[in-house]
Write a structure and sequence with these properties.
With 490 residues, the chain is of the alpha/beta class. The chain folds into 3 domains: 167 residues, Alpha-D-Glucose-1,6-Bisphosphate, subunit A, domain 3 (Alpha-D-Glucose-1,6-Bisphosphate, Chain A, domain 3, 3-Layer(aba) Sandwich); 210 residues, 3-Layer(aba) Sandwich (Alpha-D-Glucose-1,6-Bisphosphate, Chain A, domain 3); 87 residues, Alpha-D-phosphohexomutase, C-terminal domain (TATA-Binding Protein), CATH 3.30.310. Helices cover 36% and strands 20% of the residues. Strand 11 and strand 12 form a beta hairpin.
Length: 490
């Protein structure tokens, strides 16, 4: 949130819509402005008056109230609304768009962000994130602060059918059943440790497996709590998954699964409680589709995820497309190429048919892979490395720096043309979305900046275990920043 030249508040969209702190910038007045912008876009540019849109929300504080307020505004603009009956995972909301032939969706969620935040995400008729240019069209329709925003009382809109409350679960279950064999998973008798991180995924995996399932979920953090105790944010990575790791060992589970606050991302631990990082998960999912299920089709990946996909692509003769970071790039590319899978480093993966991250389907796919192969998660990691011909090593460091140093750091990276890093020859420099160096083993080092805070992320993946720390430190040296965030030029 900033101020315009006339002193009025300006709402700024990020990469996936609007996100702000509840009670500060995320107020009902501002929510109604953003809902009006979305309503105008769907009505004027997406046939929304005829097709309607879906509105759903996660389990964040007051999310239901904000969703109902958004429905009042959208309905007043002549766009019919299907309002989910309760808190709903993000992939279920997106799938509901497709199932109902809607023009798109509004999703009130802040995903894996801190507990004080709430978001406003918009989706197109395929259930995918709006492309950046289209998102800008929505933002351009924002009413000025203080302007009157049309709205209709929810009771009146419910009475005359402009807003209809619905249960998205049956359509979603039918969708999932087309992707994995739910009955086989339910009958397998596995023990799954599960952490929905207090969020929207609570109860959904149990419901998908059905009553009487022999496969049992042993759940922690399974009651709604918008404060997300025991974690700074509901993101399925260490240290947030440490409790799941302990729980997996304690109950003797075959695998541990975590979903983030809106269940569009996934984290996993093996039967020993060891974290399976997101690049390994993506490799396993691609192997599952290509080798185990015999499927063929394009793979879409962001430039911050694993090169094991290129190796698998060459081995199985399927194209691999690399995009910028974020599903705003992955989703459209999946649709363009009819990709069988798309994904990113943050733990979000989508399958053909719905270009939206789905942490519930990914959880079930990992379990199905175990059943198909008869292997434990730790054995599957070894099988994956055998398939790609090497053991891959990945790590990432996040470094906070002085905002005053941002321009100088970017300038150093813009000018950098290293011939080698940590003793590895640089074969290519990619500046499409950050600063990425590629090496002869298909390994890489990537530097990206947060767009909202003075934070620099340095990633690397390599087959050289002894080079990981040196590659990360080498990247920081090119930027002129130490691991402590202090500038160290030259």
């Amino acid at each position: 949130m900033g101020m315009g030249e006339d002193g009025r508040e300006v709402i700024q969209f990020g990469t996936d819509g609007w996100r702000a702190r509840i009670g500060e910038d995320y107020t009902f007045d501002n929510l109604r402005r953003v809902a009006a912008a979305a309503a105008l876009y769907y009505r004027d540019a997406a046939d929304g008056a005829a097709r309607g849109i879906v509105i759903g929300h996660d389990r964040r504080f007051a999310a239901r109230d904000f969703a109902m307020a958004a429905a009042e505004v959208v309905a007043a603009h002549g766009v019919p609304v299907w309002l989910t009956a309760d808190a709903t995972p993000t992939p279920v909301i997106s799938q509901s768009v497709v199932a109902r032939g809607a023009a798109g969706a509004i999703n009130l969620t802040a995903s894996h962000n801190p507990p004080g935040d709430l978001g406003f995400k918009v989706r197109d008729a395929t259930g995918a994130a709006l492309a950046p240019a289209v998102l800008a069209e929505v933002e351009a329709r924002l009413p000025a602060a203080g302007a009157a925003v049309p709205r209709v009382a929810l009771s009146a809109a419910l009475a005359d059918g402009r807003v209809r409350v619905f249960d998205p679960a049956p359509d979603y279950r039918a969708h999932v059943a087309r992707l994995v064999d739910l009955r086989r998973i339910a009958d397998a008798g596995l023990r799954i440790a599960y952490d929905p991180m207090w969020g929207a995924g609570i109860g959904w995996l149990e419901w998908l497996l059905g009553p009487g399932a022999r496969t049992r979920l042993h759940t922690i953090h399974g009651t709604p709590n918008p404060l997300f105790p025991e974690m700074s944010r509901p993101e399925p990575i260490p240290p947030n998954t440490d409790a799941l790791a302990r729980h997996t060992r304690a109950v003797g589970a075959d695998i541990g699964i975590a979903n983030d606050g809106d269940a569009d991302r996934v984290g996993a631990v093996d039967e020993h409680g060891r974290f399976i990082h997101q690049l390994q998960v993506y490799g396993l999912l691609a192997y599952y589709l290509l080798e185990v299920r015999g499927e063929r089709g394009a793979i879409v990946k962001t430039l911050s995820t694993t090169s094991m996909l290129e190796v698998l692509g060459r081995k199985y003769g399927v194209p691999v497309h690399e995009t910028g970071v974020g599903f705003k790039y992955v989703g459209p590319k999946m649709l363009e190429t009819d990709a069988m899978i798309g994904g990113e480093e943050s733990g979000g993966f989508a399958f053909r048919g719905l270009p939206e991250r789905d942490g519930l389907v990914v959880a079930l796919a990992l379990v199905d892979l175990m059943l198909e192969t008869g292997q434990s998660p730790s054995q599957l990691i070894r099988t994956l490395y055998d398939a790609v011909g090497a053991e891959w090593h990945y790590h990432r460091v996040d470094v906070r720096f002085d905002e005053a140093d941002r321009a100088a750091v970017r300038g150093r990276l813009d000018a950098a043309t290293p011939a080698e890093l940590a003793g590895l020859a640089v074969t290519h420099i990619d500046r499409r979305d950050g600063f990425k160096l590629r090496f002869p083993d298909d390994g890489w080092m990537l530097i990206r900046f947060s767009g909202t805070e003075p934070l620099m992320r340095v990633y690397t993946e390599t087959t050289h275990a002894d080079k990981v720390a040196a590659l990360l430190d080498g990247g920081l040296a090119l930027a002129g920043i130490g691991r402590d965030g202090r500038a160290r030029p030259g």
